[in-house]
Amino acid sequence: MNKINIVNALSIAGFDTSAGAGTLADVKTMSALNVYACAVITAVTAQNTSGVHEISYMPTNFICKQIDTVFQDININAVKIGMLGNSEITLAVKESLIKWKPAHIILDPVMISKHGDYLLKSNATKTLVDQLIPLSTVITPNIPEAAIIIGEPPAENLAEMKITIKKLHKKMTNNSNKNNKWVVLKGGHLPGNEMVDMIFNGENIVEIPGKKVHTNNTHGTGCTLSAALTAFIAQGESILSATEKAKLFLTNSIIGSKNLRVGHGYGPLHHFHKLV
Fold it and tell me: What's the CATH fold of domain 8-268?
């Protein structure tokens, strides 16, 4: 029997009590992909499939302590960042990551939940864009998030997505280091049955096509994609290959969600669909 080398990854995100998104979705995704998942909690939400009812943010010194404690003991191959909530937490996470210098940082710029609840305070957007996006290896915004980041109306077609993704990349490079900076722009908000995502490294835009799966079980799709991307990158996949595999895992997790019966709103994905 061949020995499998299981690598480690870290999720820095909020805690969703319904387990559809946030750190629990990240841990399930990474575990399903044979990666050992650690987690740092930035906030705890009182949340179910119908909405986010309350949020309690962790103290920044405790968030930094969580990060330090993990890195002091565990070799982390890649870090995924999700919900941060406010400027203070965003800056604290940035300083901790500068301190520990992980090889790969995958940032899902979580701003608004599936139900329309704001998960990043409006005055924290600039902090995220100016401080954390340039530190990241990969960012994975959807079209509405991308519009907020670049300060322009949302893209309405593939041509506008190409313009948006180039502007996003400029935000990452901050007119300085352009090496190993990638944007994965998710196209699920465009109309129609096609599901075209784009990936851009400053040179070439690659379209990753797919079909939309029509279901209400879409809670945590952004978390799942970025966590899967983190898992594959941690395992040594190229960014492009990792993105393609992450999208396939996401699609199959959405399809597999038909076997779940969780809540009455936007249901979760089935991260362990291969076990069915």
Answer: UDP-N-acetylmuramoyl-L-alanine:D-glutamate ligase (3.40.1190)
